[in-house]
Amino acid sequence: MAEDLKKLIIDYVKKEYLDEDSDQEITENTPLISSGIVDSFSMVSLKTFLEKKFNIKIPDEKATTEAFDTVNNIIKLLGEFVKIDDK
Amino acid sequence: MSNIGSYEERYKNFDWKLSEQELEYGKYGMYNIGYYCSDRICELGLGNKLGLVWQGFSGEVRHFTYDDIRINSNKFAHFLTTLGIKKGERVCIFMDRIPELYISFIGILKAGFIVQPLFSAFGEEALFTRLDDAKTTAILTTRKHLSKVRKIKSQLPELKYIIVLQNEGKPLEEREIEFNMDDYQRIDKFDIHPADREYPSVLHYTSGTTGKPKGALHVHSSIIAQYITAKWVLDLQSDDIYWCTADPGWVTGTSYGIIGPWSNGVTQVVYDIGFNTEKWYAFIEKHKVTVWYTAPTAIRLLMKEGEEIVKKYNLKSLRHLISVGEPLNAEAVIWSEKVFGLPFHDSYWQTETGAIVISNYPGMKIKPGSMGKAFPGIVATVVDPRKYEPINAPGSIGLIALKPGWPSMMRAYWNNKETYDKKFNNGWYICGDRAYLDNEGYFWFVGRDDDVINTAGHLVGPFEIESALLEHPAVAESAAVGKPDPVNMEVVKAFVALKPGYKPSNELELDIMNFIRKKLSPLAMPQEIEFVESLPKTRSGKIMRRLLRAREWGEEIGDTSTLEND
Hints:
Chain A is mostly helical and about 90 residues long. Chain A has helices spanning about 1-15, 45-55, 70-80.
């Protein structure tokens, strides 16, 4: 599931936050917030996407710019709310 | 010792001529801001001093001395002039916080063009509205943001030149020209347009309750106020390392991210990064930042991350902290005093005022949560909202009003005289914010007097959001209001009535959010959407936005007799 999740988030970031003709690579370790790909306001739409996808509520105190800065950080955060199989 | 010394003495004896004398403003018939921020500093013997230390998000650092700024701004001025752009035409800068943004700003001014900075996160519609209104002749952008310009350029016949930086030889279309500052021929001397006091300089767009965003037009003599406020409020001194976190797409980023520090010959550092607590603290430590000008939203985000993280870094270089953009809550002032050993000083001003007009000053008693007192040379008060007469009773709420005539006051809203004239009543410039004065003359912010949403220190116009919402295929009618937010003060909430055939769903909510974010900007994106059957309206059919806002803030709704439905 972790791999599926990684792909789901990367695909969403590419679709929603990068220009159509952007050739920027996004990996699980690419800084998203600190690089400006996703700004702190747009982070809300990413958070909303995840909440709706997994039917969870991420509390504001957990939704820090650090927790959303990479796909790996996001997966770690999601792990607190949904069961993620590492295989 | 602070630059301002005794606030009371300064206020009593102030004359703007003091600033002019220090700047030697008008010497040799020269009034151009670009000269005072680069060539003049070199003439003072500071050509080898660092003017800009820039750090990218991945850690790379670039250094620019004042002589580098002078020569590189000459390159932009020369290049743009050779294109055939005429004096007074608008040249937009639309890029992230790279060194070329700061330097081209000076170059555009030197050439005698009006510089129009726009926030690089604007979507194509927000960009189009502002370029179309200003009938902009040229835009400087980077390859990263070029696609947004391409989507709208066919509708902008006046936009003759699209200058692309960081293009790296990629194919370009008609009207597009590649430019590389580093590779361009060295221009040691450029014939700077001398301008005059009232010659237009900067066009910054800001939002109102109704209609399109308004272009607040400033003139070159605004530097008289920007120089002295940077010196006295920010307390910039010759050996300071100054960090302004604002983006030059907004007025703080130009008045105090370019003109203020550079006219004072100070070294400023720029970090092209989004918010990140650890990286921000590490940046202060690395560059030994002494003066830090930031926003309450950022301070509240830092507070959210706690005190322990602060202890990991050596932040002892900091000596003066100032805040701007929205009211600074008392808790933030108390917190900063506790963790940094220094209080944040709140400062108040607007796009239209061009420079700080009310502030807390070094050495003056800070009342946490207060905006402070009027800057010397500024006559400020609160006035009655009906007759626009000063309210003398302490504690009585009125509108913040300023006596017109300070040097950095906007001179016009671009092509919008009617709206400009409405800003003045009974001999006062009306700021549009509500406040009261206490018995010691301190101003205390109460709220906006209109429906404009202040989110993270940026004003967002509800009309622009509502218009964009109506372009979504599912939306029949809409209203946008500010709702309270612990970090950003307000965030956008939209009320949406759907067209027949559409049903509220999580997917639709997310789709509408992203639709607005891409069209306008992340700031304008509703952070919450409430689907409703219909919106409350007056008998004349106008949406009762204020009613919806009052509900969000838990305020008294007041007289609802004019409502058509409820």
